[in-house]
Amino acid sequence: MPEPLLPMPEDWERALCVVAHPDDLEWGTAGAIAGWTAAGKSVTYLLVTRGEAGIDGIPPEQSGPLREAEQRAAAAEVGVHTVEFLDHRDGVIEYGLALRRDLAVAIRRHRPELVITINHHDYWDGVRWNSPDHKAVGRATIDAAGDAGNRWIFPPTGDEPEAWPGVRWVAVSASPLASHAVDISAQRERAIASLAAHESYLRELYDKPPLEQAAALVDDTSDTDPALFGGRAYRSFELITY
Q1: 33 assigned to some structural domain
Q2: Could you tell me which of 95, 107, 91, 103 has the C-alpha nearest to residue 52?
Q3: Domain residue limits at 163
Q4: Which residues form a coiled coil (predicted)?
């Protein structure tokens, strides 16, 4: 039997969410973010790409701006008003020093105590192969959280911010090695609205109207195992401490 999940820490003020694509946070994590912003915490989004290769029927030069706008709308639904993009190429993100440096600079600029990313392991649920972009961004984010605190790694140039050793945790959403969770039972409607904002993406993948499809997906990705978190709807995280 797996161990019960612990509540996520609440003694923090600022979080930075780092993911590969628009919509990555809306598949489950947005419910937790909605609860945090409702409690007065500051949350910022950092997207490594604009998701321009994510819709087969729309060319990248059109899809990128469309998905950026939808991501900003999705973030606003859960109380997030700062959304930044790094402009790495969708689908071919490379783990390496360039990505680590970009993420470390962003962490130094936003000075979060909590950094959130999504599953960087090879599989989802132990069976479905994970995207190379997710793996590259998740692993680089975990490394960059440490890089950001070391002034001798990626020394600042020009007006770049100084080192920020204040990251206390990286929380990996939907990890197969989950240890903690957030109660999202009160955030269902906001989570649905956030995912439904990705209208063009949902219309490409599904036959149902976006709002109806978003409701089904949010309910499907909200875990409720009574043995793990008391039967409440929750989002799980692997919590890495620094």
Answers
A1: yes
A2: 91
A3: 13-241
A4: none
